[in-house]
Specification:
This protein has about 325 residues and is of the alpha+beta class. Helix content is about 35%, strand content about 20%. It is built from nine helices and nine strands. The strands form three sheets. A five-stranded mixed beta barrel has the order 3-4-5-7-6. Strands 1-2 form a two-stranded antiparallel sheet. Helix 2 runs parallel beside helix 4, helix 3 packs antiparallel against helix 4 and helix 4 runs parallel beside helix 8. The chain starts with a helix and ends with a helix. About 5% of the residues have low confidence.
């Protein structure tokens, strides 16, 4: 058997040893001139060499939700994405802004994808290799309120989620809210947005008790003597009527109705589909949304841009 045949047999055995699938390994025959005698004692001639080409395999593939993208240079994008197994990451997608990009529509806002990327311990940004689209939110783009609701979900998630910290429950929350937005376009986004705001604050550990006064510790939902509940910007909780007057917050305080507090308790123990079945309009739960947004803004220390657009719609 000639040298080329022996080389092919060695390649086949090596591929089997490292468990490379059929077709995943290429061989290339290269003729190399030897200036001296070969080992058989013949004169200068050509030696058959076999070069291995291993397939380029990404270091990680994670189920992900794209949060935001930022332009970089002329054709690249910086992508903030939330993975199911590694939490929120940021990476560079090379040539993603070109017409024939390998990423396609996979980097659109809140697209559900399988993201392939290379990660290095010495670099903050990962290198994105490709993404496989699982579920697009393109169908919601024609509805203005639903589109703004997507912006709100992406902004809150990008601000609340810490970097590289797994959050399986938050990931499942986003998937459930996105499914509700797709399945109930006529009902509007109000139930999905309120439910997301409640659980986003709760999973982040920033949701205060909704049945206890922040000032005196009295029970607001006491069956014998129920109290009215108030909240104001900069205070991490609810106040009874007496404490509201004691801290001088009468002018800047808003009331959180008893109905909204019952609604929050329902959200704590029932899935989104059951909560949405009750029927929602914009006024329903508006005070609860305002309270939750104030809690989120207080902890991220910035105003949420999409809130005003959403409530004005």
């Amino acid at each position: 058997m000639d040298g080329w045949g022996e080389g092919r047999k060695r390649v086949a055995s090596l591929a089997a040893a490292v468990d490379i699938p059929a077709g995943g390994l290429e061989t290339r025959r290269r003729l190399k001139t030897c200036p001296t005698q070969n080992r058989r004692g013949f004169g200068s001639g050509q030696i058959n060499c076999v070069t291995l080409r291993f397939p380029r395999v990404p270091a990680r593939v994670s189920e992900s939700l794209v949060l935001r993208t930022y332009p970089l240079k002329e054709a690249d994008l910086v992508v903030s994405f939330f993975t199911r197994d590694q939490g929120k990451l940021r990476g560079v997608a090379k040539r993603a802004r070109r017409p024939k990009s390998a990423f396609g529509a996979g980097l659109e806002r809140l697209s559900h994808v399988r993201m392939a990327y290379f990660q290095s311990e010495t670099r903050e940004l990962v290198n994105l290799d490709s993404c496989e689209l699982i579920q697009s939110q393109f169908g919601l783009a024609s509805d203005y309120l639903a589109s703004v609701a997507l912006d709100y979900l992406a902004e809150v998630s990008d601000q609340l989620l810490p970097s590289a910290e797994p959050g399986e429950k938050f990931f499942r929350l986003l998937l459930a809210v996105l499914e509700e937005l797709r399945n109930q376009p006529a009902a509007g986004p109000w139930c999905a947005v309120t439910y997301f705001s409640y659980w986003a604050a709760r999973l982040s550990g920033w949701l205060p008790e909704l049945d206890v006064c922040l000032g005196c510790g009295s029970l607001l939902d006491d069956p014998e003597a129920p109290e009215r509940a108030y909240f104001s910007r900069g205070r991490p909780g609810l106040m009874c009527g007496h404490c509201r007057g004691a801290v001088g917050a009468e002018g800047g305080a808003s009331e959180l109705s008893a109905e909204s507090r019952v609604m929050a308790r329902e959200m704590a123990r029932r899935p989104l589909a059951q909560v949405a079945a009750a029927g929602w309009t914009q006024p329903k739960g508006a005070d609860l949304r305002r309270f939750l947004v104030q809690q989120i803004e207080a902890h991220v220390e910035r105003k949420l841009i999409t809130v005003r657009l959403l409530e004005a719609g």
